[in-house]
Amino acid sequence: MTPLTSDYALEVIDLKKAFGGLVVTQSISLAIRPGERRLIIGPNGAGKTTLFNQISGDLRPNSGQIKLFGTDVTHFTPYTRAHFGLSRTYQIITLFSGDTLEHNVTLGLLGLRPSRWQMWRPLSFYGDLATEARRTLDAVGLLHLAEHPVSDIAYGAKRRVELAMALAQRPRVLLLDEPLAGLSNTERSQVKSLIASIPRETTVIMIEHDMDTALDLAETVTLLNYGRVIVDGDRDAVIADERTREVYLGV
Amino acid sequence: MRRMAATLLAVLFLSLPFFAGDFYINLASQILIAAIFALSLNLLVGYGGMTSLGHASYLGVAAYISALLTSRYGFGHGPAAIISIAGTTAMAAFFGVIALRATGLGFLMITLALSQVLWGLAYRMSNVTNGDNGIAGLTRPMPFGISLDSAAAFYWFALLVATFAFLMMTTFVSSSFGSSLKGVRDQPRRMAALGFNPWMIRWITFIYAGFWGGVSGLLYVYYNKYIHPTSLSTTSSAEALLGVIAGGSGTLGGPVVGAALVLLLKNYASAYIERWNMLLGLVFLFIVLVMPTGIVPGLSRLATGLRRGSR
Asked: Is residue B190 included in any domain, yes or no?
């Protein structure tokens, strides 16, 4: 498996997925360049999260291809894709609620290290993990809560822990599934500046309903409806497009 | 304070044969064996979220292999022990591949079915296993020429093995692998997305639990000098599972306390009450109602509550 030099960080080619008779992604093709900030929009049920689940490997497509940096990963398991530089967050918060924030982020770090198989040394032996986890928590403004269990903290903070877990992995491609969902205005602007500060080595693909905030972060936009790509391109062009108004903005 | 309590406990354990009679020394040996067994089951149930109803397979198979090799094929205890543990561990690896095709209830049913197969074999393959008669007339090993025939000697031997087992399993669950395991128990999908291989983590744990189940089986057959198909039965698996849940699954002390409770009720209460099973049932009902997470977590919560209250 020689890494092909590819123009694209992520390519999705003619992806199809149906649950029984319900076709969720009809035929989706995307090509996203390294470092790009892509926003994926569409009404509820358009197939956005299903697309993410196929890219991350949680769901197997019925047909089509997914490529990461030119390598076909369609049949890779989710954890192999993670080692390939893919990271994601969940629309529904999926954290280890009994564990501390530090431990949550540490798990994110551990996932990519060989020491996750180590059975004879306590986790605390790897001091660099804790240091790194704290640094990441500091970056998302939660260092003061590092010792608290996730179940103790507020919803907005949990959203940031989701983000911290993914960011700690320094992914090459980051999938964000509604990172702003359910946040207050203050929290929204915090998370927004956090996403804006993600380094350019990371390609960011984001599903978000809050257009005011999300459009500021995006360079390119893909509009999905009924499992198809309706419009795809530069942000301003997509917004100006008639079909976007028709489908999404309802004007 | 904590260190003092641990030292006191160690002294108590070590010196038990000096002040207790043979009945109690033997009871303590049985508790130690059951504790190793329960601890190994707890790796699956408490730390891995894999509720198994067939863990007696590992205890029983290790015991049978050792019994057959020493009594029928003229093996010494050393080689027999090594073969029996290696065989049991290999069996766990194989059973793990089958059982881990499912999780939750499916996993429980497969482990139950596999253990039933072994139990049936032990009963019916009487030309090998002696069937319902069991295999009697076994001997205890003599490590470094020391006889383990007295109650006290065997107790110290069991205490040594149990202490080692406890330390090894404690190290296992507090290692980074242990963190991976607990993560897979709580959020398997997230763990996979983070780069962990949930299946492999569960499988390795399954094998490790099988290994320690085998160790407890060896001690079991050494202690009883006899082996019968009931050691492979569902009752045997279920008793251990009850002990783990009653003591507190997912804690280190819980399975030890739970195993002790089951054995004490079984051996001690049965002398006074004929229907001791009913008493066992009532005690478990009480525990589940009053401390749903088990005795050890329940008591520690109570202790912190009292400390806070007295301040």
From this structure: yes
Helices (H), B194-271: 198-224, 234-247, 254-267
| Residues A100 and A77 grouped into a single domain | no
Q: How far is Cα B234 from Cα B238, in angstroms, rounded to an integer?
A: 6
Is residue A197 situated within a structural domain? Answer: no
- Tokens representing A52 are 């993410």
Our CA-based measurement puts residue A187 at a distance from the nearest CA of chain B, in whole angstroms, of 24
pLDDT in tens, B188-213: 999 999 999 999 999 999 999 999 99
A161 touches chain B (CB under 8 A): no
**What's residue B125's pLDDT?**
86
Q: What are the residues of chain B with a beta carbon less than 8 Å away from any beta carbon of chain A?
A: 171-172, 174-180, 182-183, 186-187, 189-198
Say if residue A102 is in the same domain as residue A127.
yes
Percent above pLDDT 70 for chain A: 96
Percent of chain B topping pLDDT 90:
60
DSSP annotation of A204 reads E
Chain B residues whose beta carbon lies within 8 Å of the beta carbon of residue A176: none
Q: Which domain holds residue B260?
A: 27-310
Give the percent of chain A with pLDDT over 90.
59
The predicted pLDDT at position A46 comes to: 86
**What is the residue-averaged pLDDT of chain A?**
90
Is A8 in the same domain as A79? yes
Residues B31-57 have a mean pLDDT of: 95
Average pLDDT, whole number, for chain B? Answer: 91
User: Domain limits at A128?
Assistant: 94-170
Cβ contact, residue pair B191, A111, below 8 Å: yes
The DSSP secondary structure of A11-63, one letter per residue, reads EEEEEEEEETTEEEEEEEEEEE-TT-EEEEE--TTSSHHHHHHHHHTSS--SE
CA dist., res. B290 & res. A222, Å (int): 55
SS3 A246: helix
CB contact under 8 A, A107 and B172: no
Residue numbers in A near B177 (CB within 8 A): 116-119
Indicate whether B17 belongs to any domain. Answer: no
Per-residue pLDDT reduced to its tens digit, B249-269:
989 999 999 999 988 888 877
pLDDT of residue B310: 65
Domain count along chain A: 2
Contact: A56, B179; criterion CB under 8 Å: no
The answer to whether the Cβ–Cβ distance between B177 and A169 falls below 8 Å is no
Does residue B1 fall inside a structural domain?
no
- CA-to-CA distance for B57 and B180, rounded, in angstroms? 26
Token representation of residue B222: 């050494």
B175/A119 CB distance under 8 A = yes
Identify all chain A residues contacting B187, using CB atoms and an 8 Å cutoff.
94-96
CA distance A61 to chain B (A): 17
Task: Tell me if A17 is assigned to some domain.
Answer: yes
